[in-house]
């Protein structure tokens, strides 16, 4: 076919590349986030009411678990940097992680060359210097830079006399210099940016129940395109600060909760009623509205998904079962999630999780929570609402949820 008669390729939509890139960043965030459950469990085992003085009385064992958990929470920026570099780069290998590590270590040390306040030695107290620290967001930036640098230069050929530094060996060297530049940049300009994030966090937390509801709605709204991890990272790892008994400063809803902040949990608590009760009830409604001849098959599938949601808090399998074929149900789900977030917070319920809002985290972190028992009646109410709303909407508007597909689609699936 000649170029004159060839069909023109469809023009790429403006912004589609950026959107796909953001989706890829969101997916790459899942790798470092997957480490958090281990940190949460270790830290929980180190609490006084488990292995400590108020539990088994094994104080040394409790100290070991607590310090092990803190090792992860204290190094979240580094974990996000390495995890994102591996997750974002195509065909990443160990050299990708090494490049990210080198870049981050240099960047982190360069930040200390730009102190906000100088260290002071006074009678009875030594005051450490403070400096600009982008925390997890800085780790994300360095991880992305490492991934892009690795993809661009990991096959670079140098002159023969520099051949030892070809390809993968070159990237960590480049990242040392890039880390220096990024450290200087953040050291000079981060203070006003950090103030904006701090002020936004204070505004969100100051909104109380409304702020929790806004976060819940945004979280669910971004889930279909895989970009909810952005807002999760800011809320769970950046917003809010708490100084524990040892004087260590923790940022973000999740680390604050696990280090004893009684005001933490604003951006986590309201997910428990939805994930443990409401979505399983939605799965039941989908089962009951399936065609009689399909109900047994759909029921088996939905029962499995409901149990997964209740126990672990993994809800995507249920949500994707109706997200695209019945968008109106997903809009209702997002609104009700926001309502759950607002109600739990307004009633003074504080709870948190290291993985997700399932029964495992619910019971494991019971003693760290405030009024955790209230989640059960709240969850049962939302379960009733979800069941009634989903069943009504499915039957009233004849929504093609699982088990209600047109006959020709079922025949095609059977033949396939």
UniProtKB/TrEMBL annotation:
Which segments constitute the PTS EIIC type-1 domain?
16-406
Which Gene Ontology molecular-function terms are recorded? protein-N(PI)-phosphohistidine-sugar phosphotransferase activity; protein-phosphocysteine-sugar phosphotransferase activity
Q: Which UniProt keywords apply?
A: Cell membrane, Membrane, Phosphotransferase system, Sugar transport, Transmembrane, Transmembrane helix, Transport
Under the heading InterPro entries, the entry gives:
PTS_EIIC, PTS_EIIC_1, PTS_Glucose_EIICBA
Q: Where in the cell is it found?
A: Cell membrane
Any single GO BP term: phosphoenolpyruvate-dependent sugar phosphotransferase system
* One Gene Ontology term, aspect cellular component: plasma membrane
**Membrane spanning residue stretches:** 65-89, 96-116, 136-153, 173-190, 264-285, 320-345, 375-394
Q: How does it sit in the membrane?
A: Multi-pass membrane protein
Q: What is this protein called?
A: PTS lactose transporter subunit IIC
């Amino acid at each position: 076919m000649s170029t004159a008669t060839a069909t023109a390729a469809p023009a790429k939509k403006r912004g589609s590349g950026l959107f796909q890139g953001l989706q890829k960043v969101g997916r790459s965030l899942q790798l470092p986030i997957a480490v958090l459950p281990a940190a949460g469990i270790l830290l929980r085992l180190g609490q006084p009411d488990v292995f400590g003085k108020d539990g088994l009385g094994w104080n040394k064992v409790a100290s070991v678990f607590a310090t092990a958990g803190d090792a992860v929470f204290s190094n979240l920026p580094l974990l996000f940097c390495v995890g994102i570099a591996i997750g974002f780069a195509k065909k990443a290998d160990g050299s990708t992680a090494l490049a990210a590590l080198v870049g981050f270590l240099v960047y982190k040390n360069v930040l200390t060359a730009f102190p906000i306040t100088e260290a002071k030695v006074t009678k009875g107290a030594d005051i450490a210097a403070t400096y600009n620290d982008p925390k997890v967001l800085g780790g994300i930036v360095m991880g992305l830079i490492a991934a892009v640098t690795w993809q661009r230069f990991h096959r670079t050929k140098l002159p023969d006399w520099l051949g030892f530094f070809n390809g993968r060996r070159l990237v960590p060297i480049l990242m040392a210099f890039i880390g220096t530049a990024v450290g200087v940049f953040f050291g000079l300009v981060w203070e006003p940016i950090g103030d904006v994030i701090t002020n936004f966090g204070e505004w969100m937390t100051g909104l109380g129940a409304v702020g929790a509801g806004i976060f819940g709605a945004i979280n669910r709204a971004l889930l279909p395109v895989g970009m909810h991890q952005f807002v999760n990272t800011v809320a769970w790892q950046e917003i809010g600060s708490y100084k524990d008994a040892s004087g260590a400063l923790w940022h973000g809803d999740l680390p604050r909760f696990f280090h004893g902040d009684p005001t933490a949990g604003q951006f986590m608590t309201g997910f428990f009623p939805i994930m443990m009760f409401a979505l399983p009830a939605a799965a039941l409604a989908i089962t009951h509205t399936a065609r009689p001849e399909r109900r047994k098959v759909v029921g088996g599938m939905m029962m499995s998904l409901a149990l997964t949601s209740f126990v672990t808090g993994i809800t995507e399998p249920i949500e994707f079962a109706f997200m695209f074929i019945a968008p109106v149900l997903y809009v209702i789900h997002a609104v009700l999630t926001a309502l759950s977030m607002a109600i739990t917070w307004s009633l003074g319920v504080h709870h948190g999780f290291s993985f997700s809002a399932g029964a495992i985290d619910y019971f494991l972190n019971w003693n760290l929570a405030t009024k955790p028992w209230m989640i059960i009646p709240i969850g049962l109410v939302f379960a009733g609402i979800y069941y009634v709303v989903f069943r009504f909407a499915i039957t009233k508007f004849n929504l093609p949820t699982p088990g209600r597909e047109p006959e020709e689609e079922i025949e095609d699936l059977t033949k396939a």
